[in-house]
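Onboarding guide, step 5: your first structure request.
Type a short instruction followed by the sequence, for example:

Predict the 3D structure of this protein.
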Amino acid sequence: MILYFLKVAWRNLLKYKSQSVISILGLAIGFMAFSFTMSWISFEYSYDSFTPDAHRIYQVVKVDPKLTGGIQNITPEPLALYLESTFPEVEAATSIDISTSVDEYKDFFYYNNQKDSIANCFQIITDTSFFNVFYAENKPLINHPIPSDVFYATESMMQRLKAVGEDPNPFFSGSIPDRSYHSNVPFDVIQISPRRPRKDNDCDWCSYHTITFLKVREGADVNALAKKMSHIEVENSQQGIMSFKLIPLRKAHYQIPNEQTVIQFNHLKIFAAVSLMVIFCGLFNYLMLFVNRIKMRGKELALRKVNGSSDKQLLMMLMTEFLLVLFISLFIGGLLTECLYPSFLKLSMIEAPRSYFMLEALLYGCSIAIISIVTAFFPIRLLMKRSIRENIQPETKVFGGIQNRFTVVSLLIQLIFGVLLLFCSLVFYLQLRNLNRSDIGFDRFNINTIQSWYGGVSIDEIRKIKGVEEVIPFNRIFLPRGGRASSKISEAGDKKFAEAVEVEIVNVNGPDFTQFFSIPILSGRNLRQGVVEECLINETAKRVLGFDEPIGKKLQDWVIVGVIPDLYIDSQLLPVLPCVYRSLQSKKPDNGGVSGFYAYKYSPDNRIETEQAILAVFAKSGVTKGVTILNMDDVYTDYTKSERYLLVLLGLMTLVALLIVTFGVYSMITFSCNQRRKEIAIRKVNGARISEIFRLFIKQYIFVTVLACIIAFPMGGYVMQRWLEQYVCRIHLEWWIFVSVFGLILLIVVAGILSKLYKAASENPAETVKSV
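The system replies with structure tokens like these:
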């Protein structure tokens, strides 16, 4: 019986092969995207799930509105000890030194007198409280106080050393149980250092090179602790009032911004929702086609009933056909998942076995199958209740002037998804184009920056390189960001501020700075070479300081001589800060002095050649490592890296959804024409033209299209407006965006109608009447 049902199902798939292929591909692509995205999200949620008492462990981050996400994970060195000794809610706190870490603690472990090494070895430097935070049990026995650094290794690291014939005992004081790398603090080797007191003349709190974790006591009020930590002022810290925030250990990996991440976590959730919409779009499309096929097969079903088939058997036959398409879709989606698995790993940077993702995909596939079966069961079961007479002579029921209500509702849902995705994709594209615009206050094209920490070369040597047009000494506070310097301004000119205004201080190379980057002087004049008492301010500083005419006003030790535009050197998620540009050059920098930090312009098509030549110049001077050459436009474009990837994925899903909608309209008009073939023929006999027949059909579809836009536009507008609010420079949702989306959707609907209706209206009426 099952084989017979499968044979019938396969024949019907071949009979309607174009619609079946579209439905299968739509479901398959949606499933592939959804399974990948949800596996990625699930992987992020599972960080540190094995850590004992993970619900009581938090990472401490410093609140800084000037940074992406408003927080920074690097904290002052003495913070852990301060938290442990000040707040009774804190059971233990530890700090991890990142000043010597490489690639998130990943480095080589050297042995045999530094001659040999073990790669991919995670090494961390921390204090004695580390085990009190991360190890509830099996803590190594450490005598306090420890006189000097002690080293421990995981049991697997011990085995790796033994495998290469090296005795681990001379290196380590003992072993500790293995920890999974799927953690915010992975390690193979751990160096325990005592908490040494700093010198009296040293600013402990000025040293930012640690990551801090704390463990709260059982039953402690975390909200009360977080409130206390939002306002901390330490005497003689030179930091003023500091604000810290607690991030749960299990959430730290995706809540704390990471520049290495290709796609941000919130963008992942957006794509997961989009993938789910495509799945439902494909599901409703096939369900609509499937129900219409059942209606078209009314005489066949009636004949089967007359020959003794029960409702149960007919239901099994129809569900077999539905499940065949569903399982083919899931199978193809699984094949796509397997084929794109390497690319997915490269994109997500996830280190997990293939079995993890295959099990996740299987789980999501089963979930989608169950939801689909339940969704399809009820309309199929309802159709099975029709009598033999109703199957042979079906009546077209009209509800509120709408024929084929289920079909119309299914098409409406598909159109809503299609309009929503098209609208969001268009707004997303326009905003991304706006973010990557050329006008950001300065020229960033065909400019490279050089950073060398282990030695420099003279500016004249850079100038001599073929393809280099201009060179200036470069400040790392500009683009790319290498740090920040700020100052509190309590008075400016004849104004005194009740609350000091914080401005960013940028040291520049005299007048060459504005000339090199083609920065216009909006008012006043440029800096003069060798005059260190002058400064430029940006438009934001002029506004914040409340100047109508700032030229000639004194600002601390400088006199304002000019105003320049706001320079966008940070992510567009951050507002432009009030900036003061001052010159520290007391003489012309064109003196052939040695430096490792430059910016240079290169002639078009000579980027690679100049980079290679500069590396060769540094190597000739004995600097063979630590030389970084970055392209300014690449650095700025990287700010929107996550948005670019999401736009590509979103565009792909939108195309799939629109393809599904197009075939949905085509299939619906096909079904409608088959139902009304006789009516069309009689109207033609009575003199109706094709245009009149077209108007007869199009009213219902125009109504559905307009209704879909009425529902989708407010939803899309609300979602995208909330998304746009995070950007400093953002587009406005103008009327033409809505009109463009409506026009394109209407064009798709009309094209689908015309493609089938013209053929139906062109048939010979006599032949049509005979065949019906």
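Each response can be followed by summary notes, for example: Confidence is low (pLDDT under 50) at residues 100-105, 587-592.
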